[in-house]
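Q: Structure tokens for this one, please.
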Amino acid sequence: MRTALLLKALRKNFPSLPFLWNRHFLLLLKRPRLLFQHLLNKPPISTRIFYGLVLGLVFLAGCNSRSSDAAIVFVNGAEPQTLDPSKISGQLEGRLASSLFEGLTTRDARGDVRPGVAESWVVSPDALTYTFRLRENAAWSNGDPLTAHDFLYSWKRVLEPENAAVYAEILFFIVNAEAYQSGKIKDFDQVGIKVLDDRTLQVRLNAPTPFFPGVITFVTYLPVHKDSVEKFGDAWIKPANMVNNGPYRLMDWKINDRIQLVRNETYWDKENVKLKRVDALATSQGTTAINLYLTGQADILLDKGLIPPQILGELRQRPDFHTFTFLGTYFYRFNTTRPPLNNPLVRRALAASIDRQLIVEKSTRGGESVAPTFVPPGIPGYRQPVGLPYNPEQARKWLAEAGYPEGKGFPRLSILYNSSTSHASIAVEIQAMWKRELGINIDLRQQEWATYLKALDNLDYDIARSSWVGDYLDPNTFLDCFVTGRGNNRTGWSNKPYDTLMNNANLQTDQAKRMDLMQKAEKILTEEESPIAPLYFYVGMLCFDADKIGGLEGNLLDEHPIRDWYLKKDQKSVISNQK
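A: Here is the predicted structure, written as tokens:
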């Protein structure tokens, strides 16, 4: 029946294609994954027809039988590097960890902050002290009560210097957190985190931070189970060992295949967790991801980087394709510890010779806007500096001033990117631009997700593709990344005036003055020193049938908590097809 429906649709839309009647092709219709691969290897006549055929495979999904289980399968992206909240910096890992663990506060489908483990909190008159009251029924998945001591232990673990937590800086709003993490003070009692009793946690901040309840929704602030961590060491994140407190438990983890989550029956709000099971599929290939979705093997395609640009024109016409604005920037990093990238003239030349408009029109094709700056538009009260516009003539002058006229004598560098069709396409375009405009030769270097992240951490690259999505609604979530020594700096860049501006901004209580300080810092970052080259601001993209699935909404932080997902009345998941 499914084959007949698909064949009817294909013949109607492409009546002149003789290969539709080929016996081999008709056999492939019964096995959609093989059909998709066949089309990849032997594409018909034109790209438009090819993707038209691919999109036709969705008829198979529409006719799939579905189980009575309340379950959803989604494509999450590459294989997760870790599920330890203290070690996570990537969005795809954070999405899973935030389903397994819950912090004092959390976010809903709209991105709004709501109470999590903390049922309430009080802010002192000077706006420096937050006192959180924990829920009496908050518990770990093994039945242990969850207390304020668990948060103190978990945050201290992040700040321990020997742990080198990549995102420890997000705790630096707290008094003496940075001093303890850097080793300047040894006594943790001097850090502004205090347990008043089992259900009461008090946090003292360096300066008024009105967005702090939103900051602590972030993955680094999630609690971990002390006994499990200390008993199993790094293996505590394995399914058999993990004890967690979030809406889901880790049932299974098949490397490079899927992570299976099941509802946590000890979760304080389990009655409002509608799905019994969620499967997160791992793939770094856009063709595989769209195949899984269009053939009905996944209900949701979440990772925007896995949607092939060539298919976007067709997808925009579909009711199950959703776009939205969010705070995300795609950019290139320069390893400033390596010559000639240690020269800001060279970095500015490279940045100013990138035709961003061509990239969004030719490579990404998602309606993205060019990004001359790092902080995206949309943050209330903040105005970005001008940044570096596309100016190849000026770029050539800077390169010549740096000692490389017309690219002569310029060493051969490489662009590092993780496996993805879109990243490769952008790298190829920029490689050509730098050859054409500057006369320099650049190699391309592709790595899998975990290896790529390790290379960034170790500064084992020349130029690397990167992206950043805001963790809260403030420019600091972007600009603080490049303060000297930050775990997410990953460029080796250090600039004292920049550090001073950011430090003063974080201590400033006047919001207008604070925003002005951060604008000056961003001017140094994107116009003068250029340790990064912003390329474009993201457009959020989701693939799911809104008539069947609820709890997914576009929002500025690109947050889509799995806890809020549900199947609408009389809808079932594709999981039944895999039993």
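A few notes: Residues 169 and 486 are 6 Å apart (CA to CA). Confidence is low (pLDDT under 50) at residues 12-30, 36-48, 58-68.
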